[in-house]
Amino acid sequence: MTFYALFVPFIAALFAPALTRVFKHNAAWILALAPAGLFVHYLGYVEGVSQGERFTGGYPWIPSFNVNFSWLVDGLSLTFALLITGIGTLIVLYSGGYLKGHRHQGRFFSFILMFMGSMQGLVLSDSFLMLFVFWELTSITSFLLIGFNHAAERSRRAALQALVVTGLGGLSLLAGLLLIRNITGLSELSLLLSSGDLLRDSPFFIAAFVLVLGGAFTKSAQFPFHFWLPNAMEAPTPVSAYLHSATMVKAGVYLLMRLNPVMGDTVAWETVLPVFGGATLIAGTLLAMRQTDLKLMLAYTTMASLGLLVMLTGFGTEKAIEGAVLYLISHSMFKGGLFMVAGNVDHESGTRDISKVSGLRRAMPITFAAALLAAFSMGGLPPFFGFLAKEEIYAGLAFGDTWSVVFTIVAIVGNGLMFAIGFAVALKPFLGRKVVAPKDVHEGPVLLVAGPAVLALGGLVSALFSGAFHDWFSSPMASAVTGHAAEVTITVVPHVGLPLYLSLATIALGIASYVAIAPVRTAMASLLTGFGWGPDRGFDQVIAGIVRLSGAVTRFIQNGRLEAYITVTFVLMVLAILVPMGIAGEWPSMPAFPHLFFYEWAVILIAAIGLFAVIMAKDRLTAIVSLGVQGFAVAVLFMLMGAPDLSFTQFMVETLSVVILALAMTRLRLSPQDHRAPVQRVFDGAIALAAGGAFTLLLLRVLEVDLDMSLTEFFNTYSLQVAHGRNIVNVILVDFRGIDTFGEIAVVMVSGLAILALIRVLPKRSRSALTEPPAPPPEAARTAEAIHAEVREAN
Amino acid sequence: METAITILTGLFFATSIYLMLSRHIIRILLGVAILGNAVNLTIFTNGRITREAPPIIPDHAAVPEGVIANPLPQALVLTAIVISFSFFAFLLVLVFRSYQEIGTDDTDEMREAEPRDEPAPPLGY
Q1: What's residue A795's pLDDT?
Q2: d(Cα B85, Cα A41) in Å, to the nearest integer?
Q3: How many Å is the maximal CA-CA distance in chain B?
Q4: Scanning every residue of chain B, which has its alpha carbon at the shortest distance from the alpha carbon of A597?
Q5: A407, A409, A414, A418 alpha-carbon torsion, rounded to 10°
Q6: Which end of chain A is more exposed for a tag (fewer CB within 10 A), N or C?
Q7: What burial letters (b/e) apply to A375-407, b meaning 16+ CB within 10 Å?
Q8: Which of A596, A642, A776 sits opposite B68 (nearest CB)?
Q9: Mean pLDDT over each residue of chain A, to the nearest integer
């Protein structure tokens, strides 16, 4: 069943465009059945998983490499799968309303379902290869979704940026996974989980750790790789709600949680994760404070929340892990809900700038209520799920030593600022005097309000029934992350203790920040303007640098000068011949002085003179005649060496070449003279002589070894017996290699046609410059065919 | 015999490459024509050289008698001669037509595809 479940979203994606064409935006109701069905399917696992069971399955994929197509359902992957399919259902419905009437709505559904399938596959993968493939698929689908509004350059830039950053991280992850596989010999997560010591004791542990972090930190937008996430807000709001807050950006956190039993409990893990996570938390909240765009405020708090999750995952106490688990679940709900609220405000009022929109509470009561509930959860107020998370976080962090105190303060500051931003998002657009909006504001249709309402209520209901919720989801997930049975017990009833005091401090800080949000924003803005440079601009500089570099390299290599290309080609050819000969020491021995008959010497001398004359020719006629001389000399050589057929063909071809060359050159009035500078001539001559020498050496060496004559003997033996021909060369051509010769005739025919086509195309400039249309080439085509006729007749 | 032909082949290669290194299209064309001969001689020599005994089965025998030339490279070279000729003919017409269109026989001036002052690639997204 789970095997088929992996493909369901992709199949739905296949049909989405057609369904949307028929049912318009109401196709959302049908398409939402896919994730809803999957959600129900995964609920079936809850009972088993809550009792500590772990479900695995799969098939051999590449057995010779011990790679399987295998999945793993435990507390961690099950909770993620439920979040992905559950929120996915709401997002599909929401997109139905949000993009109603958009002409590419079908495509959008298709993309978002493909993403859902990738994300689902990612969290359920057991084999490393599957994990990597789905990991990259989420990057690619995210690229498609961010760039959905592809007519805008900002969207294209954001999409490319996300793809480059997460794609590079994906490569790093691949290297890390391969290294882990190399160290442990395992390629499945389920097996790796029980073999952590093997990895931790390896000298390559740090390398594997850094490579895996490269994947996780880019995907989960940890500082300094965070810059792509706010830019990704160019995507339509359902995408921001789903990919860039509730699910995809948590893939990095998922990976870290998954590997916590394997890589955790080491100095590197418990130093790097909290430091980078804490830095991301503080940077994210501070950057969020300066924004007035609802989506950007939420985007930066998402970054901050991811930092908090990474920090908690690496902190090393069981309570911190439990806090991370609770916060992850509550964040998915309240942040997904708040994004949809922001989308509703944008959709209905035409702006999402909190300095421009206010007083919508009467026009949009349901959205307002959902926003408030979500903000309560985000702020960590009882009786919401966020409150449980925050209590557990503080219980996990607050210890006496300096290290813990530092991170407790970081968490308080981060949470306090997030409290302020959460309420700014939930209150500012709705309270206050109603401003005149660009369009008539009213509550969105059910498709638009269902998502935020359900998620906001989810934050309340899950807290109220926290006992059952923990049993089903939180405890199994925490057990999977810690690697041993863990039980989450926290309830909404406040217990007087240190965590509660820290919560109160957080709330106080949050209220203070909310009140002072405007001056803080101004201060942050001026600080950032003063700083000027950031990773986002750095990305532009790197990309521009790459484009300039490749442009310069292309212009250097492909400079449009044919002689440069030919020089490089032949220099490399000489090296390719001589260097291997030199390395292998395969030089030919000094050959004996050849003993030839005088007429053989004469022919060879004539050929050499012909060649020399071609080079030295001062006028057209000499050049053409000299070319003929060397050609005829070769023909005579063939004759002397027992190849009458070759000799005959060579005579024909050389005659034709000379004739058509003469015809063409008299019309072209081209000077065959050499215009090269003397230095250039010496240089070119050196290359030419080196090439000639290289070929001579190679040939001499080849002639020293024995020739395998078995093929020749075959032809000699069967020429008459099988093919009934006495001229063995012709038998080979038309019989044994008949298809080859057929191909050759085809080449001649094609070049004849090409010549014809070239001649028939009228010159751009006036044809009067030339006396008449040139005659030779069709002749050339015909004569080439004639040669074949000769060859065939000869047999 | 083989040694002499080997050196001659080297000479063919050297001449053809020297001609092809020129900027003038007619000389490149001459170089291509000679390159065909150079390659044919290489193939031919690789199959070893025998004097004057063509690979033909006499009337009274079923298999060739005595030492005969190797027929295999001959068959390959025969194909190669015809192919290199049709290539030469095509190239000649191409030269002819490009001279008509562009009005130059200097390859450095033939810059339809790779203009001299090609603008840098756009830096936008």
Answers
A1: 46
A2: 71
A3: 80
A4: B1
A5: 140
A6: N
A7: bbbbbbbbbbbbbbbbbbbbbbbbbeeeebeeb
A8: A642
A9: 88
Cβ–Cβ under 8 Å, residues A166 and A142: yes
**Single-letter amino acid, residue A585:** G
- Taken as a whole, chain B contains a residue count of 125
Phi (first) and psi of residue A707, to 5 degrees: -95, 135
Task: Read off the pLDDT of each residue in A694-703 and give the average, rounded to a whole number.
Answer: 93
- Mean pLDDT across the stretch A579-607? 88
Nearest CA to A196 out of A396, A482, A477 is that of A482
| A69 membership: H or E segment, kind and range | strand A67-73
Q: How far is CA A397 from the centre of its chain?
A: 38
Q: Which of A547, A719, A729 sits opposite B121 (nearest CB)?
A: A547
Query: What is the domain extent for residue B13?
Result: 2-52+69-107
Query: In terms of pLDDT, which residue wins out, A316 or A35?
Result: A35
The two tokens of residue A235 are 């995507």
- Kindly state whether residue B73 falls inside one of the protein's structural domains: yes
**A and B: number of Cβ contacts within 8 A:** 325
Say yes or no: A563 contacts chain B, CB-CB below 8 A. Answer: yes
The string of pLDDT tens digits covering residues A191-204 is: 898 888 888 888 99
Tell which residue, A327, A509, A492, A311, has the closest CA to residue A397. Answer: A311
The angle at the Cα of B45, spanning B43 to B48, to the nearest 5 degrees, equals 120
Measured CA distances, A302 to A142, A226, A345 (Å): 16, 10, 19
Our count of domains for chain B comes to: 1
Indicate the residue type of B86: S
Q: Which of residues 571-630 of A touch B (CB under 8 A)?
A: 591-594, 596, 600-601, 604, 607-608, 611-612, 614-615, 623, 627, 630
Q: Which of B85, B90, B103, B75 is nearest to B34 (CA)?
A: B85
Tell whether B114 is covered by a domain.
Answer: no
Residue of B45, B91, B93 to mutate, testing the A interface (most A Cβ within 10 Å of its Cβ): B93
Is pLDDT of A503 > 70?
A: yes
Contact call for residues A156 and A217 (beta carbons, < 8 A): no
Whole-number Cα distances in Å, A641 to A449, B34, B77? 92, 20, 13
Rounded to whole angstroms, the Cα distance separating A340 from A355 reads 19
Report the amino acid identity of residue A29. W
Q: Quick check: is B12 in a domain?
A: yes
What average pLDDT does the segment A177-194 reach? 90
Question: Domain containing B101 — which CATH number?
Answer: 1.10.287
Classify the complex by whether its ipTM is higher than 0.90, answering yes or no.
yes
Could you give the CA distance from residue B58 to residue B45 in angstroms, rounded to a whole number?
A: 25
State percent of chain A over pLDDT 90: 51
Measure in Å the smallest separation between the Cα of B11 and chain A Cα atoms.
6
Asked whether the predicted pLDDT for residue A163 surpasses 80, the reply is yes
Q: Among B23, B40, B20, which residue's Cα sits nearest to residue B32?
A: B20
Whether the Cβ atoms of residue B47 and residue B4 lie closer than 8 Å to each other: no
A255: contact with B, CB 8 A cutoff: no
- Position A495 scores a pLDDT of 78
Q: What integer is the mean pLDDT of A699-723?
A: 90
CA-to-CA dists, residue A360 to A376, A456, A546, A790, angstroms: 19, 19, 47, 93
DSSP string of B54-119, one letter each residue: -SB--TT-SS--SS---HHHHHHHHHHHHHHHHHHHHHHHHHHHHHHHH---BGGG--SSS-TTPP
Q: How close A601 comes to chain B (CA, Å)?
A: 9
What residues of A are in contact with residue B6 (Cβ under 8 Å)? Answer: 591, 696, 699-700, 703
Q: Residue B59: inside a domain, yes or no?
A: no
Rounded-to-integer distance, Cα A519 and Cα A19, Å:
50
**A707: helix, coil or strand?**
coil
- Alpha-carbon gap, residue A240 to A347, rounded angstroms: 14
Note whether A644 contacts B: Cβ–Cβ < 8 A.
yes
